[in-house]
Amino acid sequence: MECKDICNLGCAYLDNEMEPETKEFFERHLASCDGCRKEIEACRFVKILIQERIPRVKVPDVLKIKVMMELARAEEYRETGIDVIDLLLWGSHIAQLYDGRDEISEVVVPYMTKGLEQNERCLWIVSDISEIEARDAIVNVLPNVESYLDNRQLEILSYEDWYLVDGHFDGKLVLNAASEKCQDAISHGYSGLRVAGSTCWLDRNDWNSFIDYEKSMNNAMSDKKLLAVCSYNQRSCAKDKISDVVNTHKYVLCKSDHFWKLKSPDF
């Protein structure tokens, strides 16, 4: 072992992180090299000095408990595929405020792709774009999307087939359908259900009923392995409607300076 090796391995030696055989060679060199021995002793002194002068802070017991509780829930966290959010707990309800129809795919495609990669069943309900356009958008990043469509791990439906089954919107029916879809996903071995839906089909008469449905959705999702993204066209939403959206979703995405950002409830 040479002197240059002593300098490189000094920290590992002082921290007692060295393999026994390496440590033996290291100490043998120190015994025969006065310069390296003095160097290591100087480093040891500096380390002790730093340890003595760094204030020791006792972590509150309540913080320890919270950390342990979150670690125990590690399996409940899901990667969203959305850069600005990253990880969320099951039961999270997200709103996306968008300007142009192309912006829907910017959020929903990576969100859906990540769900498929994590063995989740994924449901995309479209209205601004067609079912074919939604499929093609996913194909651009996930070429084998046909296999997911064939085994129904991925479903792309028109808003008419999900929100307006009987020709009109009924929030209770939609909630029941989502709950059944989630249970069915788990019974077939999937980790849970990931949903995305666009709301451009909403007219003025349906707005209040849909917001009531969104409120109920928060309660219905709280104990289920379910994630949901609801896309709203902010150009067609008056200020009071934007307020409704913000108040019924825990997370709100909005594009600013060409980047998607999380907005606080008071924006």
Written description of the protein model:
By secondary structure, the protein is α/β, with parallel strands linked by helices. The chain has two domains: 3-53, no CATH class; 78-263, Rossmann fold. The chain is 50% helix and 18% strand.
Beta-strand content bin: 15-25%
The total count of strands amounts to: 9
For the termini, the CA-CA separation is 63 Å
What's the helical proportion of residues?
40-55%
What is the CATH class of the largest domain?
Alpha Beta
Q: What is the third-level CATH name, the topology of the largest domain? A: Rossmann fold
Order of helices and strands: HHHHEEEHEHHEHHEHEHEE
Cross-sheet strand order for the largest sheet: 5-4-6-7-3-8-9
Q: Helical region count?
A: 11
Classify the oligomer: single chain
